[in-house]
């Protein structure tokens, strides 16, 4: 049986869509904090196990009879490394055959501007040291995040970000979810690292050009300095931690951390992942 944590979140929900196409629901379990939010999965026959990353007893219960676990990264950035360790410990205690983790595809963990990303690598280190078989899904930045980064008025104001000409091999969340489901549904439990990226790197100038072509409007990209961008974000009412998080992402992009292309996603999908233009067409309903 496969247990997916964070099962009602965006990535967890998307992964279940593909798992249910590959396996009977009787072979799937979902770890959720609120059982009511998993009613649709329960109706499909998925086993629901209630618990949280902080509740070690609930994790021990959730792991009973489980062969594989997909640990989806927690969102509590202050606590999530310990939370992830709790999941790994429970899996080891239950003799789970494979633990998969949703990490990040970044070039060099030691030179990151966005230190929040370090938690992913600390989780990787702990999982590898546990002695469990593992699958590390090092995911590139979601293409789905572009609307959040460029803002709601992109077709009126253009794109203004401190990302320089840095590129990102953006991929859609759904493509990553399908690839992860393929691995989980397979028989292989050997330790493997998968780097899931798009087939090509794109700058925000490329994003602007694609949006212009799709919409028929003038959309330009203007690189800005970090202080000006921080002021703009704060003027929009965003809290300082959110501002610093976005600035960290943009700085790493400018420094080439996300300019990383690997064929693992294409291989797992059996096709090329969605291109930037195809993805933006879907995201913006153009």
TrEMBL record:
CDD domains tied to this protein: TMR_SDR_a
Ranges of residues in domain NmrA-like: 2-248
Query: Known InterPro entries for this protein?
Result: NAD(P)-bd_dom_sf, NmrA-like, NmrA-type_oxidoreductase
Name of this protein? NAD(P)-dependent oxidoreductase
The upper taxonomy is:
Bacteria, Pseudomonadati, Bacteroidota, Cytophagia, Cytophagales
